[in-house]
Amino acid sequence: MKFAALLFVSLLPLGQAGSPDYFIPQHRVSGIGIARDDLSDDLLAMRTDLMIQSQTFGIMRDPQAVSGAKRITGDAKLQSLFRTAAERNRLPVTTLEAISYLESWGDAKAVSPAGPRGIMQISAATARSMGLRVLTTTRFKVTRDRVAVKVKGKTRYKTVTHRTPYVVSVRDERMQPERAIPAAAHYIAGMEQKYGGLDWAVFAYHCGQGCVNEMQDLTRHARGIPKDQLTVARMFFSSSPAWNRELYQAIEQQMQRDWSPTYYFRVMRAEQLLAMYRRAPDDFKALWDGYRQQFGPLEERAPHRLTVWLKHDDIVFHSCDDIRSDAGKRLARAFDRPDYFGYRLKITPDVPSNLEFFSQASPAALGTLAYISFETRRLMGEMGTSEKFRPLEVVTLVEPEDFASQPGRSKQELMHCSGQVFDVDYSGLPPAELEALRFVLDDLGWDGYLGFVEEGRENLHIGCSPTSREFFTSVFEEAGGRELAAGGSK
């Protein structure tokens, strides 16, 4: 599998550096956190590919992923429209297909609550700039009410007429694929010419020209970006809270608005997935089936990666007796040396005697915890803040099912019965550290190494991907070796 191979290449040991006062793993994920300030061409290509592969979740978790692929690739009329529009505008036909797939699943009648419509999901203002006709008219709904009035001391009734205006569509060419697809292709080709690359044109299709103007200008003036490599990938991977901070803040703003900075990567993955559907539809359907959530209704979109990565068979700890009998098999005891490993245990079991058993997790989960703490601490150290690093507070590791499924607890608590996830309480973290933590989680998450989700208003629920467990287990084993060498006294 291509993703697994790239994951392995990107996890080569880089050697130990920095302060010996806290845990510094020799096994590193290249280009994460503060290491973003020195991305080689090869590393950028590797991170870009991992980012593209990680978009599989966002696409394949949707119930319409299969029907949309069938509609896009199997409709002869649509295929003719895509090919003709692509040829006339010198665009890859696969890019047009992928955009329509992401925007509407190939549905010509698709309507977004935000306003865009049609197979290419074009806003009314953009449609008019493309030359599409979007005509509306105002009509009135007439209602009549009988109301009581006083006339010379007597009650009389009269009828009051109300005219309520509403707008109806008279002609909307966004809903006509034979008009919308060529118009969108012409628009994208114009954006490619204006911004100097198809990647920026795709970005502009989702984010708008004003957004891309700002992002290109910030990228052009950012440190460490060669003048001849002004690409969306360079923009995305060349900033952090400690490096090109203005660019980082602009990306964060757009991410919070509509995830536009990741749109190009999603389009690239959609191209690959549609090619897969054409080549091997059964394999495509099997992949889609693997991205259906395990902890909720199968017909609904999975809310986050952990609901896809963890299966019902992973829920193996049904009672405290299961945890007790595991004794060094699937679970390991978490190290509790806050200053050295960068996290402290704040576990609150149902009864105090269970603290020892609840202070365990899988080696992969504990390695993930140690690695996140390491990257967060060193990124915060580069941010130039006067705030002091505070060890992350770990409030939940493994839990038995009979405890996690008690009334009032969320379905996500059941994931702790696998030993593969943990919760971090961020409510007491200094602002700079919280910013660093969230960036590290995003950075690792964008490349498919881990997933995380808010649990309540102050907890983060975190777990690594199945393909990353071996690596994070090696981090835990390395941490264990340091612990033994120090005799647990440091």
What do you see in this structure?
With 490 residues, the protein is α+β, with helices and mostly antiparallel strands. It folds into two domains: 180 residues, Lysozyme (Orthogonal Bundle), CATH 1.10.530; 189 residues, Muramoyl-pentapeptide Carboxypeptidase, domain 2, CATH 3.30.1380. Helix content is 48%, strand content 13%. It contains 22 helices and nine strands. The radius of gyration is 27 Å and the shape is globular.
Keywords:
490 residues, alpha+beta, Lysozyme, Muramoyl-pentapeptide Carboxypeptidase, domain 2, 5-stranded mixed beta sheet, two-stranded antiparallel ribbon, 22 helices, 9 strands
Reconstruct the topology from this structure:
Blueprint: H1 2-9, H2 41-54, H3 56-60, H4 65-74, H5 76-89, H6 93-104, H7 124-130, E1 134-151, E2 154-172, H8 177-195, H9 198-207, H10 209-220, H11 232-237, H12 245-258, H13 263-279, H14 281-290, H15 306-309, H16 320-326, E3 332-333, H17 338-341, E4 343-345, H18 355-358, E5 360-361, H19 363-382, E6 392-396, H20 401-404, E7 421-425, H21 431-446, E8 450-455, E9 459-464, H22 469-486
Helix pairs in contact: 2-13, 4-6, 4-13, 5-6, 5-8, 6-13, 8-9, 9-10, 10-12, 13-14, 19-21, 19-22
